[in-house]
């Protein structure tokens, strides 16, 4: 963990947020060497932060001991170059346990995923995240999705909760997000609260989220095609609408359409992409399953088309 506050570091990022996959060996055990190599590739390619053991990293499939080991490996490999944020989830007691393990491992912050299984009311959700944020010294980003969708008033309360620094939106209701941003801005003027586009393949909705002031986003693509992800990030940040549009049309939209063809593809398709890049990170753990060969071939072609767009625009390949 570095001395600089996570909120300040994430507020001035100059690259995509990297959500690495968790590597497994042939025996199914966590392969920390392959994971470190994966993290190092991302850092060298220009990642602004490493979010370890989150959705793409199969948090749901890791034991507490495995979780701590993977987070520690990410911290060791980054060596303070970029912040490391670890996932934390399940019920309140277990989420706190994972948060403490992440703190012990040296993480800079937490991504608080929805509580397991139950559908709670707003008061219960607020109590859950307040307890999690209070359990460690780590700054916490709350992940809105599935069974954890918040009213603007609840987000105002979260933004005023010590230790909570931001909201990652994986729900995708832009009307709701605009009202949330407006409510926090109105009720807590001057509050530096961070917002993240956390939809799968967030780049596809990047222009829409930018329209309401949300520029930070999680990039699953960066895990397997960092050159494409970084080129898109720079195009959006620099106002190169032609390059951004070409990548949306010829890479990101086809990728999202492929992702929709299988359950769990937000994870398994990403992991397949990492293997296509030459790093053996193993397969996903059950209950997720691997994409069939036809979909791997389709992914290969989509990646090739994305790189063809970069060549067309004279972009140097990175990663």
TrEMBL record:
<dbReference type="Pfam" id="PF00701">
    <property type="entry name" value="DHDPS"/>
</dbReference>
<comment type="similarity">
    <text>Belongs to the DapA family.</text>
</comment>
<comment type="pathway">
    <text>Carbohydrate acid metabolism; D-glucarate degradation; 2,5-dioxopentanoate from D-glucarate: step 2/2.</text>
</comment>
<dbReference type="InterPro" id="IPR013785">
    <property type="entry name" value="Aldolase_TIM"/>
</dbReference>
<keyword id="KW-0456">Lyase</keyword>
<protein>
    <recommendedName>
        <fullName>Probable 5-dehydro-4-deoxyglucarate dehydratase</fullName>
        <ecNumber>4.2.1.41</ecNumber>
    </recommendedName>
</protein>
<dbReference type="InterPro" id="IPR017655">
    <property type="entry name" value="Dehydro-deoxyglucarate_dehyd"/>
</dbReference>
<dbReference type="InterPro" id="IPR002220">
    <property type="entry name" value="DapA-like"/>
</dbReference>
């Amino acid at each position: 963990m570095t001395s600089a506050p996570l909120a300040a570091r994430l507020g001035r990022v100059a690259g995509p947020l990297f959500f690495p996959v968790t590597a497994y060996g042939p025996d199914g055990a966590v392969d920390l060497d392959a994971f470190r190599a994966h993290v190092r590739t991302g850092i060298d390619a220009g990642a602004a932060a490493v979010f370890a053991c989150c959705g793409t990293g199969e948090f749901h499939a890791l034991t507490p001991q495995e979780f701590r080991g993977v987070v520690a490996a990410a911290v060791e490999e980054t060596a303070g170059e970029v912040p490391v944020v670890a996932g934390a989830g399940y019920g309140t007691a277990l989420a706190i346990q994972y948060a403490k393990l992440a703190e012990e491992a040296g993480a800079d912050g937490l991504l608080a995923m929805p509580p397991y299984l139950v559908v709670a009311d707003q008061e219960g959700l607020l109590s859950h995240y307040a307890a999690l944020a209070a359990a460690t010294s780590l700054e916490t980003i709350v992940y809105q999705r599935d069974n954890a969708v918040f009213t603007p008033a609840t987000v105002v309360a979260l933004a005023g909760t010590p230790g909570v620094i931001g909201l990652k939106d994986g729900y995708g209701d832009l009307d709701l997000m605009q009202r949330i941003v407006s409510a926090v801005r109105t009720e807590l003027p001057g509050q530096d609260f961070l917002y993240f586009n956390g939809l799968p393949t967030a780049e596809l909705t990047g222009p829409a989220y930018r329209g309401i002031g949300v520029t930070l986003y999680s990039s699953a693509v960066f895990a397997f095609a960092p050159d494409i992800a970084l080129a898109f990030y720079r195009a959006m940040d620099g106002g190169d609408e032609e390059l951004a549009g070409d990548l949306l049309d010829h890479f990101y939209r086809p990728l999202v359409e492929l992702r929709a063809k299988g359950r769990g593809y937000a994870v398994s398709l990403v992991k397949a992409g990492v293997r296509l890049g030459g790093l053996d990170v193993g397969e996903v753990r059950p209950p997720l399953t691997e994409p069939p060969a036809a979909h791997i071939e389709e992914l290969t072609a989509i990646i090739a088309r994305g790189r063809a767009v970069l060549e067309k625009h004279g972009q140097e390949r990175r990663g």
